[in-house]
Amino acid sequence: MPVNKHPTIESRAQNFARALQQVFGRGFGPGFWLAVFWLVIVAFCAMFADWLPLRDPLDPVIANRLDGPLSGSLLGADGLGRDILSRLVHGARVSVVIGLTAVSIGMIVGGALGIIAGYFRGHFERALMAVLDVILAFPWLVLLLALVAFIGQSLFAISTAIGFLWIPAYARVARANTLSVVQREYVLAARAMGATTTRILVREVLPNVILPLLAYGLVAMGLVIIVESALAFLGLSVEAPQPTWGGMISEGKRHLATAVHVALIPSITIFLTVLSLNFVGDRLRSRFDVKESNL
Amino acid sequence: MSDQPGQTTPLQLRDRDDIVLRIEHLSVNFRVGKQTVQAVSDLSLDVARGETLGLVGESGCGKSTVGRAIMQLPPPTAGKVLFKGQDLCLLSGEALRQTRTALQMIFQDPISSLNPRRKVRDIVAEGLQIWGRPSQQSRVREVMEAVGLDPDAVADRRPHQFSGGQCQRICIARSLALDPEVLICDEPVSALDVSVQAQILNLLEDMKQRYQLTMVFVAHNLAVVRNVSDRVAVMYLGKLCEIGGTGSVYARPAHPYTRALLASIPDMNPLSRHQQDGLPLLHGDLPSPANPPSGCRFRTRCPNAQALCAEKEPLMQAVRQTEQNEPQSKTTGVVSDHFVACHFPL
Amino acid sequence: MTPREFKEQPLLLDVRNLTIRLNSAAGLVHAVEDVSFVLREGQTLGIVGESGSGKSVMARSLMNLLSRRSVAQRQGSVVLSGREISALSEREMQKLRGAQVAMIFQDPMTALNPVLTICVQVSEPLQQHLGLSKQAARQRTIELLDAVGIPDAANRVDQYPHQLSGGMRQRVVIAIALACDPALLIADEPTTALDVTVQKQILDLLSRQQTQRRMGMLLITHDLGVVASRADIIAVMYAGRLVELAPATTLFGAMRHPYTEALFNSIPRISDPGHTRLQAIPGRPPQLHHPSPGCAFAPRCQYAQQRCHRETPPVVMAESSIVSAKPTEHLHACFFPVAKSASGGVN
Fold first, then answer.
1. Domain housing A233
2. b or e along C128-142 (b: 16 or more beta carbons within 10 Å of the residue's beta carbon)?
3. How far is C291 from chain A, CA to nearest CA, in Å?
4. Looking at the 3D structure of chain A, how many domains does it have?
């Protein structure tokens, strides 16, 4: 090893390299990057659907009815002659918005409840856990149907309803992580220095709980997309004619015998998206776990 | 009988002006399931300015609990913790937060006592930030240099990039930043490598001189305690067994438990293997603290136990100093500083 | 037993040039480098080292317990009772483990299975290796528990680990290790997780059992005090290498390697007056990812010279020392060995 004349510079470079490694990962593997690539495409479609050079997703061209893929348009047309690619791209928006909103609601409300329960323990924790157990014991689809019937079928209402379903799961994850963080001596040290409870929660507990929550969020988002599809399949998601992936499958089921691609293409899209989310979420979570256990 | 603590002033408390920390009849109970476990029971001791009190005992004897009870983390179930005459147990909220900054703590596991998501600079500055102290930058530099860390190389890193010894230095720097008067060290070197322990012990000694600290040093290693403390208190199952000047306690242990502890220290002499069975060893294990023995708690393992030990709890008494051992005490008339809670002291 | 008596004992374990490199997230770890030693029947070899000195990795490799995925490289030979074991298949090794070599781990909490009774755990090797019937194994288990000093063994045998204290659990672990009368017992930090009073009981128990059963024992620890009065031979490891090896009395009489001396001097002593300044070793043990050339201890060594930073010192026999030790009995790996007798020596 050459004699190192600039230890600080070298160690900074090493640190930077290590940080890069942590973010971009050595050993994540090509599968991880494929998944990320797919998710980036989906996110891009959701954001820029209106500006992309696509046909109008709501414009029925009777002549194109049930066109197969690569015949005229890339992915063909559905039972009303609407362009499937365009509808997929616009449908991504619904999936992404509902996914993000629902997960955010679950994460913020459930996370906060879980952290508070884990930190203060006592009666609040017991009461909260009891309520959460009751919610979890409900068949989720029935609960969701009731919520949707109650608050309506707007994008926001659907997101809120699904988000509500995620509160118990998030509260549990947050509480479990908080319980382990609170036992650490740095929390005690902060209290000894006179840190207020708010400061401890924000500075000491939250940064250590948020990463596992975020990683869990990706996996949760995959499940949210499936739940939304199920709702759409039952005709209870965002109202037609707004395209959604679940709605497209629902519409496609009528033509399963003649034009299987109408239902198959959105199904594959959902499959790939959920798989990617799980894959990325899982990898990131194990990465954080390893980092924790190294400490 | 000691059934009604709080009535009398315990014998072992000294009547001096320079007492910084004084603990009277301290009890700490924990609820474990449906049982109540008395982790610390009617414990009284004091620490004078600039003194280091070593607190020793086996795991589960409540020594760490005492350290935390002094900090009111959590507050004790009963008793007083007087810091410069002020009872910390009576303070609450803002007043406690304020006063407690004068007492700081160092923990056993240096890695678990540093938040992995924060930079060293922020960790050390934490206390200063909380209280909005002026010139935080320079203070952080100062304490980091004092504990032997190079601020430029270290400040922007995170704890996982450091070894256990360096993490313990960071912990010490953090505790010193607020300029405390009392430092409570809870097993500060037992998680460290042997070759690093001495560095940290020397550092603590230096910091004690430099910042005029009073220390409570909780440890299970008797040799370490011997090295750092002026006075030593021996605990067994939540009770104080013996307290006194370190030299006196180590040279002439009066409690059978203290003697057993001293006898179990591994001998550094390879020739001693043939003479190992000289001193009576402790037999058996620690009884459950949830259900301590009646009378003297040590009696179930004590080689000298008699019927009285099961009936009556021994009170603290001054250790009689035999003339051949301590000739100067007779001439100077110094009152004994060595106390033991045993019916049949050695 | 004196070293001379051991000379006549047959060789139990012969480790030659053992080198182990492990894979880790941060790259190749040079865990054990060129370690050689022999152990005779009935002898205790104390291996002293700090965390990261490679002592535990070495112990595990003697039982082939390192997972195949983590070992990147393994060289050298390990001969146990005349049989080379490094090339044995997992199946053959399983026959040896427990029967020929047994191991005691640091943490009695995790070494025992919490959902099985003591009886099941102790009698398992008895049934497996010795082919005892269930009833006979149970009887033998009670005898074993009795032998390791567990009071009321007949009743304790049906308890679960959580019903026992730490010291009692470690006794159970020892009973499991002794179950099939192994020729070699590897005790990896057997008392580190225990209290001092219990520590002494356990060490005494190990010594007693070893003498009775004429086992060879590897006593691995970070505490010089633990091995001082219990090991016949002491090996000191630093950064994966053996830096000094000598009979205990010889070693404590005249330490030759600066690390051994520094380690010895850095330990606080009960006999020293309070506030004695400790002779701390500066710096920290090296990382084993990128070993630099030269002696691993050189950066922390007060006697280090130019040569120490360039070349790795080989293990050599100490020149006949002040004490009447035969030169063959004292090995060290240092270009400039400490000549003087260790300060004070004993306490």
1. 98-294
2. bbbebeeeebbbbbb
3. 9
4. 1
